[in-house]
Design a protein that fits this description.
single chain; about 160 residues; mainly alpha
Length: about 160
Amino acid sequence: MEDDEWELCYDEGFVYKRKRRRTEAPAPSENDAEKRRRERKKQTLLKLKSKYEKEILQWESLSNTLRSMQQRTTLHCHPQPQSNQTPSPPSTSSSTDSAGGSLLHDLLLQVEAQEAIIRDVSNLCDIAEAVCVKREEQFKQTLFDHPIWASPLELMQVLCDDD
């Protein structure tokens, strides 16, 4: 009867007796630990998925903005010839005025197109800067979320965790 409660252990040359351990108790705790590990892993993957989805949406928005800028640029750089111009009489003063007016009109269109391009590029730069600032803040937050800033008990739990 007494032999059932004790077992002989051999540990690197040392022989000693100790009470037998029950083998039924660790099974549920390992199962619970596995469930917790899976749940943490699932939550982490879901957060990562949402982060990447947001980033994809931002890139699609930037891509659409750039595409619309390119389309506007091509429209402004290659204006349609004006069909409402009527041939003017061959007088020198009126032909010089119309040529100057046409040149002035073309230059104004180019300046307006360049202004729109500069405004759009400025907006893209603002968006890119906001994305960079957000990533920098997220990186800083990961440093502050590190367990060394937590209580010593939480730090020891993280260091002793088998994950």
